[in-house]
Each structure stands twice: as C-alpha cells, then as structure tokens.
Structure to design on (519 residues):
C-alpha cells in the first residue's frame, strides 16, 4: 500500500508541475482547497478550510448525520442525559485505536477536553484553543470505566451535542500530543477514515486510507488537499485535469462546468453569513446612526446579483435562514437607500474621516472578497465615506482581525459557517466574547439584553423557547447594527464526472470516506 501511495503521489507531483496536461493519479483524489491550512490540530483551528481536512482524519464522540445537522453516534455508541440536562454519560466504541497505535478510551476523551478547558493541564500550553468557548459549560469530566465517560455541566446547555459534532469536538491522540507538544498540528493522529502522511507547506496535505477504520475502509487510497488560493487558477487547474474536486467555485466560472459532461456541479444550502465587522470601540462606528447608515449605503442586491450571480441571498440579520426553526423571517434586510444613509450621517455629525477596511484575498466562505470590497468601497464613497482598503492573505488576515479592530481598522470582512444558532452570536456578539477574553467579538459590540437572551437560549431545553429568544436577539442586533449584514451563501463544488459518491453537507465539511474514483 505504501508503495502504491508513493507512486500515486509521484504522479500527482508531476501533475501539479504541468497543469496544462495534468492527469490526476488513479484512486487518489486531488482536492483544490481555497487556502493553506493553519494547523491540523482540531483544538486550535477555526476555519472551515481546515475543517474540510480534519473531519477525514479524526472522529468525535458524535457526528452529523449525512445530509443534516442532526447528531448521530460516532466514537460514542450511545449516551444518556440526566433529567436536569446537566449530566451526559457516553458509552464508547470498543476496539478503536488512534493512527499511532495507541488506544481510544475514556481517558483519551478526558485528556482531550481537559487539555482545552483546564489551565492547569500539562498540555494546556499547546493551544490557544479559540473555540473552546463551545464547552464553557463543562464543569467536570469523569472516567467511569475504560469505555464510559461522564460530562457534568454547570448548567443545562442545549447546543452541547451539536458542538461535540463540530471539529472542536474531534478527538486527538493524547500520546501524539505528549510526543509533539505544540507541534502536534504538524504531526496529527486521530481515529478517522484517513491517516496523515505528509504536509508540504503551501503545496499539499496528503492523507492515506485507514484500512482498519471502524466504520469501513474508504475506497480511495489517498486524498491530496492542495491550497490553490487564486480562484481563477483553481478553475484553470480543474479544467486542465489537475484537480478532481474544486470547492467554492467562483460564480462567474460555474457556467464553464454546468452542462459539461466531464464535470458534475453540486450546490447545497447551509448556515452561512457574510458580513462586515464594524469597530464600535473607536472611530466613526461608535455611533449607531453611522452603523445604520453603512447598512443603507451598501447595495447588497447588486453584490448578490452581479458579483455573486445569484449564488447567495441578501442577509437580514445575524442568524442564517438555514436555521429555519430559530430564524426571524419577519426581519427585512436593510434596503439600499443612499439618501437615508446621507441623512443619518448628517444627523450623526460624521466628519468625512477616512475608514480603514481590512479585506482578504480569499478564505473559508469569503466568496468574492476583493470584488465585494471594491463594490462596498464605491457605495460608501458615494455617500461621502472615503475608504482605504488593506488586503491580506487569509491566515494573515485572521491574525489581524481576530485580536480586535480597535486602533487598527474601522471595519473588516468576515464569513461564518456554523452548526447551531447559538454559535456565531455567542462567540462574536456577547460582551464576554471580546478578543481579550478569548472570543471573536472583534468589533466590541456590547448589549446587556443580547447577553441575557443568549444566556437564556443556550440553557433552555425547550426548542420553542430557544427560538423565541433567538428571534428577540436578532431584532435587537438588527437595530444596533454592529455588523453590515450582506449575504447568505449557497455553497458549491465541482468534481470530475468520474468521481463517485461525492456530496456536499450543510455543515460545509467534505466527508470523503465513501467517495470513489475508479481507475
């Protein structure tokens, strides 16, 4: 198998070197990704680009059922929830080993979560763990026996199972963490359908078939994830045969693949929001009228129809409509009304000072970030708001935005794909989620009523009650306008027609365990 893999990867390397005549190797899937991954440690990652690799190398206690965001068993075969909603007891799958040969058991589960949550844990310094907020309700983890683990929460927490299915809940090998420490993300070991083989920076991440996978060995011998950050280059490589799968096809390129018998085009709605973070700590956006003005000033219909060519809808607020049960469909998007924007700016006494706007070259769910930024810049300048764009590569961009915009920029693009209506507002709109507290509230929005509603919603075990609380939150945030709500995207991908059993998921992940590529 190793010999076959080496030969296949040699063929892949030749393919990469000459994309005009490229042919991908037999039984090895070449995936064109949108960016270089930051890490292969699920505890430290935040980007869907990275998650698409991770979910093929690791398992969680639970996972999303195919085609849904409903939870089903994975490394846990079953679980019991106490009547008060505060204790979860998981029965673990027997006979599972990590790729490094060490055993999966209750001690491994305890190690994973305490590593993220306990500042006194000997491997807490292998972080930071930016999404550990998802498990902030966990008070205690107890090993009942080798195949039973109990989580005790400080309060009922409705999204707990869903968050366990998210990549932050993927289980890594404790022995590998102990061996590699903070460098574990370059030497990953999980229990998933594919095992790590190689990471050639800015060229490829290679994973190979786990023939002993508990859920059935995958048909593919290997998958090569290639970072091709320029969308036009990804399209060219797909057309020339150098890729088997391309994610996030630019809207103006879809027509090249649609109706072509050599390719299959996939689309799938999911919980996505593209927005502008506004800096509420210093500068013009400390005034709500100025924030509302930019929501009126930007022609979001033109962005969706002309730049995104109908692959998205105009967003009305912070909750994507894909969460139908929690979405407030009575909210309307801010209409394009430049005269209203000018009036609000005049009322606010806006002095015409230049706005600094952080823009990314590309990234997870960012769609057409530079073209969208140029349109936004033109719309704002048309109402008297001069804008200076600063553009950065994706990981550099995150390194500038996530620590907070205060003193640095007035606004920044951002996109989130989430698993629960709690996730995005809890991590990015609460007062306790400011960057210096470990959250993603990079614009420093703070409203005590929003904080209260989110706390109530995540501790309620009644979905109807949760829905009402989220709808109240959406109305307040819509009015406060800490963000510019731009678009909800419908994800897409294209594969060679020869690729079998490929599917897109509402989670935005790429699950490749059952994908086949006949020779």
């Amino acid at each position: 198998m190793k010999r076959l893999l080496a030969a296949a990867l040699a063929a892949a390397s030749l393919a990469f070197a000459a994309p005009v005549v490229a042919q991908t190797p037999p039984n090895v899937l070449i995936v064109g990704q949108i960016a270089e991954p930051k890490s292969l440690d699920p505890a430290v990652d935040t980007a869907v680009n990275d998650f698409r690799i991770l979910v093929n190398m690791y398992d969680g206690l639970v996972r999303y059922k195919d085609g849904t965001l409903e939870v089903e068993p994975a490394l846990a075969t079953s679980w019991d929830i106490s009547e008060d909603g505060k204790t979860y007891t998981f029965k673990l799958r027997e006979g599972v080993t990590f790729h490094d040969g060490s055993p999966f058991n209750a001690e491994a589960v305890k190690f994973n979560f305490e590593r993220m949550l306990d500042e006194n844990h000997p491997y807490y310094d292998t972080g930071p763990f930016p999404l550990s907020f998802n498990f902030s309700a966990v008070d205690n983890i107890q090993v009942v026996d080798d195949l039973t683990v109990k989580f005790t929460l400080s309060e009922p927490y409705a999204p707990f199972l869903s968050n366990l299915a998210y990549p932050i809940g993927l289980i890594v090998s404790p022995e590998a963490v102990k061996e590699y420490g903070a460098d574990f993300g370059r030497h990953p070991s999980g229990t998933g359908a594919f095992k790590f083989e190689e990471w050639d920076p800015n060229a490829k991440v290679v994973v190979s078939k786990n023939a002993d996978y508990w859920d059935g060995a995958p048909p593919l011998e290997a998958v090569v994830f290639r970072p091709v950050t320029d969308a036009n280059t990804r399209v060219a490589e797909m057309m020339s045969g150098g890729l088997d799968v391309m994610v996030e096809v630019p809207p103006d390129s879809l027509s090249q693949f649609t109706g072509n018998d050599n390719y299959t085009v996939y689309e799938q709605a999911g919980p996505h929001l593209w927005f502008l973070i506004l800096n509420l700590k210093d500068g013009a956006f400390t005034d709500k009228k100025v924030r509302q003005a930019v929501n009126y000033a930007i022609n979001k219909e033109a962005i969706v129809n002309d730049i995104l060519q109908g692959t998205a809808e105009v967003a009305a607020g912070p909750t994507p409509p894909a969460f139908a049960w929690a979405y407030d469909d009575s909210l309307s998007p801010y209409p394009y009304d430049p005269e209203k924007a000018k009036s609000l700016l005049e009322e606010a006494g806006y002095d015409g000072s230049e706005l600094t706007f952080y823009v990314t070259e590309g990234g997870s769910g960012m769609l057409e970030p530079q073209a969208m930024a140029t349109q936004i810049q033109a719309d704002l300048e048309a109402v008297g708001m001069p804008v200076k764009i600063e553009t950065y590569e994706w990981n550099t961009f995150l390194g500038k935005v996530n620590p907070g915009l205060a003193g640095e920029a007035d606004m920044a693009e951002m996109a989130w794909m989430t698993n629960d209506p709690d996730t995005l507002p809890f991590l990015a709109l609460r007062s306790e989620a400011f960057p210096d507290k470990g959250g993603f509230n990079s614009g420093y929005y703070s409203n005590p009523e929003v904080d209260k509603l989110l706390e109530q919603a995540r501790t309620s075990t009644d979905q109807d009650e949760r829905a009402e609380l989220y709808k109240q939150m959406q109305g307040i945030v819509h009015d406060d306008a800490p963000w510019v709500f731009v678009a909800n995207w419908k994800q897409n991908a294209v594969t060679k027609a020869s690729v079998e059993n490929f599917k897109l998921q509402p989670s935005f992940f790429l699950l490749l365990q059952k994908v086949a590529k006949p020779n």
